[in-house]
Specification:
The protein is mostly beta strands. Helix content is 0%, strand content 46%. It folds into two domains: 2-330, Glycosyl hydrolase domain, family 43 (Tachylectin-2, Chain A, 5 Propeller); 346-553, Jelly Rolls (Sandwich), CATH 2.60.120.200. The protein has no helices and 41 strands.
Amino acid sequence: MMNEMIQNPIFPGFHPDPCMCRKGDDIYVAVSSNEWFPGLPIYHSKDMKHWELFSHALTNAEEPDLKKLPSAKGIWAPCLTYCEADDLFYLVYGVMNSMNARYFDVDNYLITAQDPKGPWSEPVYLHSMGFDASMFHDDDGKKYVVALEWETRLAYEKPGPISIMEYDPKTKQMVGMPKRIWRGGTDRGCIEAPHLTKRGEYYYVMCAEGGTGYYHCVTMGRARNIMGPYEPDPCNPILTSNPTVANERADWDHLKTRYYNPDVKLQKAGHGSYVDLPNGETWMVFHVARPFVPELRCTLGRETAMQRMRWTEDGWLRTIGDSNLVEEFVQPSQLPACLVKPLPTYDDFDSQKLQIGYYAPRIDPGTFVDLVSRPGWARLRGQESGSSLHKVSLLARKLTSLHMTATTKMDFTPLTYQHTAGLILYYDNMNFLYLYKYYSETLGCSAIGVLELDNGTKREHHLMQGNRVPVEDGKDLYLRVGICGRDVQFSWSLDGEDYMDIGPVFDISKLSDEYSEYGEFTGTFVGITCGDRMMHKHTADFDFFEMKTEEEHYGI
């Protein structure tokens, strides 16, 4: 029976802030991408069970320019909608530039396309009053943008109310000044992520409350007039990981670890959106997290989950079963199955085009990855160190399981200690684990070691049995990282058969939202990387990249 169920999360690993929409029989979900590029992944399904990574909405790395933005900033909270009258997809997103002092400096933009595969239009600037902006298309042809109005004043509740503004698609400008319409359906505080919909005579506002941590939830309100007043759902929150009732409006801490609920596996449930299907089903997507206990560290970040919903006779949204607790296993849709091809676990780099599902921090992978010069190999041109916020040659995939092995074969000859290349586990620019080949002046030849960056503190693990580890140039080098729960072990081989461990067993829980002092809204990636901190032109060749997940150990 369990094999027939849908297991949450449906998108494991870094997939926060999901927004779902529908065109006919096609269902799409867009998620945040923060500093990672290409931006705004879009997933597609026809049966609500089988999903494929369909496209990315932002493919021009100069618009927006993410270079030098701090970790966890960048592209936030997409709102993907389809307007049947226009036959257009609308995608609203924010670019978070700074979160210093009490200021959240964000710019919100709109792009459109006839197909989620693109091409997408040039971005239209909307406003900068707050984050999590979303668009609503009314049945009279008018369009509105709702967003969190970020409160910068010290004596006021943070983050602020939900405000609305009309958008004129002809002039491509906002109309008038924002009107505050909603301060939440509970007293959990930290309201955000508004989405407006209309059903029957009511306008509905769906929001997240309680912060993005362990008191996170989904709430709703409704009104007969789009400008309000909105009445709260009497059963708020409609979805959460912790159903307790408390007034936390004065607590600005978004994590609220004291609300960790040991009775559920999926924590931090919130930031929801829903669709009504032609067959009468209603589904909601939202994000969750699976922390290590007792530290409550979420290495995989916030992940996308979904739940089957229903409408009550008096017009409120409820889960099937009427519990507001998030569920790990949910009954599948009655839609006919429509299988999709999953992302390959093995990439031999035989194509001249990079497969979908690869990312780089802040820059376009195409600026440093060459798949042509040496057919069957990915040639990476080295640039800055992994600690940089500017140009890092790191080709990575999202870590989706904590029972995983990643392997690559590398051909690389460093000429100076400034040349490095290898295999990396990367959370942000101040937290990563790196198995790399380098030139050792001590040995007078190439060697391998493991570099650990722990909240900016650098540690080098170069010794095996008390000695540095020389490796011969001109021969292929196999590099591997194995993850088993919280334990991480790097290893290497000359033939791809016999692997030798190198470095200590690391604790992967440190690569997490909660442990990082520099970023807290993303997740861990695994990939290949090359650095040339002298001339930015030395290269490393990789024959393949493989990520194998032990499916019997799903998640944590």
